[in-house]
Amino acid sequence: MRYLYYPGCTLKTTGKVFDDSIKEVAKVLDIELKELTNWYCCQAIYTPLNDAPSLILGAMRNLIETQREDDKLVTACAACYNVLLRAQNSYFQDQLLKERVDAYLEEELRERIKIIHFFELLEEKVELLNSLIKKRNSFSLACYYGCLLTRPKGIALFSNDINPQRLENLFSKLGFNIIDFGFKTRCCGSYLTYTKEEAVKDCVEKIVLSIEEAAGNNNCQILTTCPLCQFNLENYQNKYQVFYFTQFLLSLIKGD
């Protein structure tokens, strides 16, 4: 199956290991990802200020670029997914905003693009994934979701913003013990890592404490879905190893 793929800026820089693992996992699952032509930064943060069309122009450029080739777009960065989804919703729900964006871009988005998170493609390939795994390690898994894929309600990838289970369901089907902890959707500190490190350290400390309490004596690894969460959890604690979910899957397939 062939899909247009939007990597976004982070997966081409600090999150390159995420991008690489996505492409390698896709290849072994016979999923063809064609990178979107002439893609732009999505602007990374969605704002609800609908009177400021410039704040969704990056996302809308990508969706208009998509419609020239397809009606579906796959992405994996949590921020990109969140921004693309919310920008498109605002565009179609607010006629004045739509008119202002159309006037600036001199082109309109004719119909909604189906925005797909790469994780959704994996959910359809569980049996194949199971057959490809060469080696399962003995670690239990703590699946950390963060903020951007669980909010806002109604359009988020993971509809339960308190106790989502889709990552856990996937990896339990692959034979792993799951650590179900309370802070799986608590913010990691996000972009405060650039301005208020102590605040981020406090956020990460609370997440890790929640995992510790749930894990007990189990050896545990953390799986993430977001480059910024990955960065903060890797840099502000040293108790647990942290992996992108695709990076972890790739290690299982390779037998590392």
CATH class type of the largest domain: Alpha Beta
The secondary-structure class comes to alpha/beta
Total of helices:
10
Shape estimate:
globular
Mean pLDDT score, rounded?
A: 94
SSE pattern: EHEHEHHEHHEHHEHEH
Tell me the domain tally. Answer: 2
Strand tally: 7
Described by strand count, sense and barrel closure, the largest sheet is: 4 strands, parallel
C-alpha termini separation: 27 Å
Which radius of gyration do the C-alpha atoms yield?
19 Å
Give the strand order, joined by hyphens, for the main sheet: 2-1-3-4
Low-confidence stretches: none
Helical amount among residues, as a percent range? 40-55%
Question: What can you see in these coordinates?
Answer:
It comes from candidate division WOR-3 bacterium. GO terms for molecular function: oxidoreductase activity. Keywords: Oxidoreductase. The chain is α/β, with parallel strands linked by helices and about 260 residues long. It has two domains: about 1-120, Glutathione S-transferase Yfyf (Class Pi), Chain A, domain 2 (Up-down Bundle); about 130-255, Rossmann fold (3-Layer(aba) Sandwich). The protein is built from ten helices and seven strands. The chain has helices at about 15-30, 55-65, 80-95, 95-105, 120-125, 125-130, 165-175, 195-215, 225-235, 245-255, and strands spanning about 1-5, 30-35, 70-75, 115, 140-145, 220-225, 240-245. The strands form two sheets. The protein has a four-stranded parallel β-sheet with strand order 2-1-3-4, with helices on both faces. Strands 5-6-7 form a three-stranded parallel β-sheet. Helix 1 packs across helix 10, helix 2 packs across helix 3 (about 80-95) and helix 3 (about 80-95) packs across helix 4 (about 95-105). The mean pLDDT is about 95.
